[in-house]
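2024-03-11 09:14:02 DEBUG pipeline.ingest accepted 1 chain
2024-03-11 09:14:02 DEBUG pipeline.ingest length=297
2024-03-11 09:14:03 DEBUG pipeline.predict start
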Amino acid sequence: MFTGLSTFPLTPMNESGIDEKAFIQLLKRLTSARVDSIGVLGSTGSYVYLNREERLRVTQLAIEYAEGIPVMIGISSLRTRDVLQLAEDAQKAGANGVLLAPVSYQQLTEDEVFSLYETVTKSLTVPLCVYDNPSTTHFRFSDDLHGKIARLQQVRSIKIPGVPKDLVSAKERVEQLRAHIPSDVTIGVSGDAYAAVGLNAGCECWYSVLGGLYPEICLKITRSAITGRSAEAESQSAHLDPLWKMFQSYGSLRVVAAMAEMQGLTINPSLPLPLQGLNEIARRELANILTMLELDS
């Protein structure tokens, strides 16, 4: 489940609670497209804004409506105690895998991060994906630490940040990390703008924000790259450059939430306070982009 296209849908919500109907509708788009896996309660799933009961409900819905597609559940939390509880919830619900980032308020050391993964993996019977997301966690993995964690029981993939934009540098980065980790641990790229070059550079998986809303488009890019049609994958990604620039300017979560609202897939607002959606100027810009890319229907 840690190869191909792994799609991360929104968790639509407002201050009244999770919009389960909208969430199920988003899941059905993914199952209809037959994506390779579904990741819920990652950053796009707003896990940090949900309590344990809400996260369990999202987990249960995802597994119920996955139609046989593997489901990976985010279990990140501030305290190791809470991560262990979330891991237990995910496994009991039937998750196929879990995703863990070293989230913290205080700056973590390498020893503390290793201890987190060592403790959690001892409790797991399902595989784990390491979530390397320094823009959120403010922790930067060294390749040596990645290698040490990748040798722990149950670790099967590393979700890395965007790779360099040029293919030569991207290949160097992927090969550099690959030299530190076991061959049965996959490397997956995140940061949608970098997906095509990451896959072309040797990453085995794309952990995708856009794929959680428009899976068919992202599947085309993924399939092009993994079947050796690298130029085609780059061209397909370049076509989406206006969206990637919106992601960079406003954050992918806000942009994808606005797209879902504009498509009538979720209500407005669909993000938890204090997060706010795009302002009217940005929404008009996004609407023009969706029309240009023929994604407005």
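2024-03-11 09:14:41 DEBUG pipeline.report The longest helix spans residues 20-33.
2024-03-11 09:14:41 DEBUG pipeline.predict end
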